[in-house]
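Minutes, project check-in
Item: structure for the 316-residue chain
Input as provided by the requester:
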Amino acid sequence: MQARDYSANLTGMAKRLAPSFVTLVFEAALKSFWRRKSLWRFLRHAGIAESFLSTWNSEESKRDFLDRLFAKLPDQPRGREVLLAIARDLAQQESFPDLQGWEDSERKVQEARSAVSALRRGLAKIEDQVQDERQRREARVRFEAFQEEVRRSRESIASLSTRLNELASRLGSQEAGYEFQDWFYDLMDFFEVTNRRPYTADGRQIDGSITVSGTTYLVELKFTRDQAGAQDIDSLLKKVHDKADNTMGIMVSMSGYSETAVSGASGPRTPLLLMDHQHIYLALSGVSSFSEIVDRIRRHASQTGEALLPPDRFGG
């Protein structure tokens, strides 16, 4: 079939895409990806313009964003073709790495498999109308590129884990402390967290800052053998109180905290969040992004006044 004839047939086929088929694509996309970043990456590889993806703000849920995307696609010159490309990419999934590691992973994977199976059946009926190996090959290439990006992401996580394990063997040394600062902001760059590396303000050394979900946090990093104590908390509180009203603080103490430190950081409307090695290794496991971990601790602090929430209580 000549390319021109195929395009005409594809256009005719695309115009006949039933709302029920669009719903199948929507459900498969929604169920296959739990993290915003993973869904964003998939849609970009499937052909959604970054100019549109950039309109997805932190207040908009995955479902609402997909609703808006799928409502807009039919009005675009190549929208229906893009929709078919998304459908083909989704239908090729055999595993769902983004759904692993959650408390209800088994249920999430089961729902994703069901949605993808339904999509495959719907797509098969459409593909019977137009058989063109070039389009299928392009779909395979797109999905392989997506898988390659996921693989590179895992390799980056593995490299960060190896560096941290090496640093851990020198825990407590001043040199390792400085190297841990560099490592921490490399982790922030990996998770695409807006950050500023260590700087001095008003004569005080600031270990840097990060911005998560619109809130800026001053960062205090402790790579010592001893637990962080009450004096460490007081020092960070002083730095936070000297800044704008919406500024908060995050302390990362790899050796944890004394009871008095946790008590001093906690209280009504506390501006501090506490993290330790458990939170860092949770991020490195790929189960949760760093921003998701911060947001979880922030919600807990807002609800209870407790500045520290260990990962084993995230489900509570």
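Outcome recorded: Confidence is low (pLDDT under 50) at residues 1-14.
No further action items on this chain.
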